[in-house]
C-alpha cells in the first residue's frame, strides 16, 4: 500500500508522494497532484505513481512491460543521443514491429521463444488480420532484433533486469539481397555519355572516389584542399533533408542550415570523416568547374540547381542518374549508391590493401589494427583513386 500525504491546499487538496532523492544533487523529491476533493487528489497521484512504476522510473513489484520500457527508452535514451533520422528509424521499428508482436511481455519474463515469435510475426505476416499484414523481409527482422538488443542493454544498465535475454538467444538469420553493381566499363560509358558538366563531374566523384550521395550533394569549396601536393576532398559533412518534426538535433551535433529543409550534418560515423585524394584529371575538372561557375566562397556548395539552391536526392540526383543510365544504354535497376559498390569492387580487383580501401570508402572496421595502428599515406590513397580512374577509363 502506497503511503500518501494529503492536506488542504487553497480551495482543494494536495496529495504528495516521496520519490527517491535526485540522483544529481541528492535533494529530496516529492511528486504532487491536486484535486477539488481528497479522493480526486489521491487518485491523480496514484495514477502518476503507477506511470512511474510502469516505465521503470520507480521500483515496483512488477517488472515493466517491454512496450512501456521501449517508449521510455526512445525518449530518454535514444532521442537525446542520436541524430533525428536515426531516432525516427528506431521509433519506426519499435512501433511497427517490436511492440505489436511482443510489447506486452514483461522485461524479466522475456525468453528466446519471444524473440522467435517476433521474427515470425514480422516475416510471416497475417493475411487474416484487419487490415491484412503483409510479410516483411528478414532484414526487417534483423533490424528489430538489433534495436531490441540495444534497448535491453540499456535496461540492464538501468537495473531493470539482471542480464540481456537477447544474449541467450539466436539472432534472426538475415538473407542479404545483393545490389546490382555497374562494371567499370558501364561506369565509363555512363560518364562519357553525360554532356552536362555538373553531372559529368558528379558521376566521376561517385564512381572514381566512391563518395556517398549526401557527400556529393553537400560538397563545399572548403572541403577541396591540397595535401602533400595532392588535391583532395576532405569529407566532413553530408547534405540531408529534415522535416519539421525531425529537427530536434542533439546538442553536440554541428549542423548548418542551408535553406528550406536542407541541412549540412556530420558523417554518420567517425570513419566517414576522411581525406580522398583525387586523380589529376578529376582535380583539374573540378577546379575548372568551380572557376567557371564563379564559386569562390569557402562554404559555398559546389553543386546547385538552376535556382541556386541545393540539389535534392529524389528530385534531382536520382532522376538524373536514371537519365544517365538510359543515355548510356545501360539496362537494369541501378541507383546512385550503386556507384560506391563499383568503386569498392574496382579497388578490390586492383588488389589494394584493406587499409587503403577502408580509408577511401569511409567504412568503419571491427579490426582495431585498421582503425588505430594502421596509418595510410596520402600518396597510397592517391595511387588508389588514380588506379580506379584508369580502370574505368579503360573500360
Automatic annotation (TrEMBL):
Cited InterPro entries: CB, DNA_brk_join_enz, Integrase-like_cat_sf, Integrase_catalytic, Integrase_recombinase_N, Integrase_SAM-like_N, Tyrosine_recombinase_XerCD
Region described as Disordered: 124-143
Keywords noted in UniProt: DNA integration, DNA recombination, DNA-binding
Matches recorded under Gene3D superfamilies: 1.10.150.130, Intergrase catalytic core
Keyword DNA-binding (UniProt): yes
Superkingdom: Bacteria
Domain Core-binding (CB), first and last residues per copy: 64-153
Residue ranges of every copy of the Tyr recombinase domain listed in the record: 177-386
Protein name: Site-specific integrase
Gene source species: Bifidobacterium amazonense
